[in-house]
Amino acid sequence: MEQALSCGAAPLPLVLNLRYSTNMKASDSVPETINARTLLLPYALTLAIAMTIIQIVIAATGGQVTVLSGALTAVVALAIVGWLWRNHRSLTRVRFGTAIAHALAFVAVTTSYNLHAAIRAIALADNGIQAAAHDLLATPWFGATLGMSALWGLGLFIHLIGVVLGRGWED
């Protein structure tokens, strides 16, 4: 019962309609995806290693957030920007790709500082809760933990809302 293709108004057979619709390339079509694991896993592991090294440097140099730790974190930030620039095209072919990269960077950096600060607070609690509170609120640890988490978290939240509105695609 299949109808022959013609220039008239006769519809294409169902089999041909299905095949045509699954193979067509429209400008509004979803981009071809790539393997997110091979793209994002090395990035995440590299961030975890870099931030672990920074936290070891902080611990080895007196346990305070200093210009050195800020400079090392800035180097990581520049490396993130470079990686995003180099892999932007690939990331746009992964659904939620740039948002995941953004979230991975946020989690790696802020968690490393917050975890270090939490361990310090527990260690300083033996000297009294006031010592721990002073260390978190009246030293550069405040900016490295609460300030950075709050501001970067707000930016990440806005980014994620935008990606959700775009159904996961950011091109």
Descriptors:
171 residues, mainly alpha, elongated, disordered N terminus
What does the model show?
The chain has helices spanning 14-23, 36-60, 67-86, 88-91, 97-124, 129-137, 141-165. The protein is built from seven helices and no strands. Mean pLDDT is 84; it is low at 1-6 and 16-24. The longest helix is centred in the middle third of the chain and has 28 residues, at 97-124. It is mainly α and 171 residues long. α2 runs antiparallel to α3. It starts with 13 loop residues before the first helix and ends in a 6-residue tail after the last helix. The radius of gyration is 25 Å and the shape is elongated.
Structural class per helix/strand content?
mainly alpha
Q: Distance between the terminal alpha carbons, to the nearest Å?
A: 43 Å
Number of helices: 7
Q: Proportion of β residues? A: under 5%
* Percent of residues in helices: over 70%
How would a crystallographer describe the biggest sheet? Answer: none
Mind telling me the C-alpha Rg? 25 Å
Question: How many strand segments?
Answer: 0
* Uncertain parts: 1-6, 16-24
Tertiary shape:
elongated
How would you summarize the topology of this molecule?
Elements: H1 14-23, H2 36-60, H3 67-86, H4 88-91, H5 97-124, H6 129-137, H7 141-165
Helix pairs in contact: 2-3, 2-5, 5-6, 5-7
Summarize the structure.
The chain has 171 residues and is mainly α. The protein is built from seven helices and no strands.
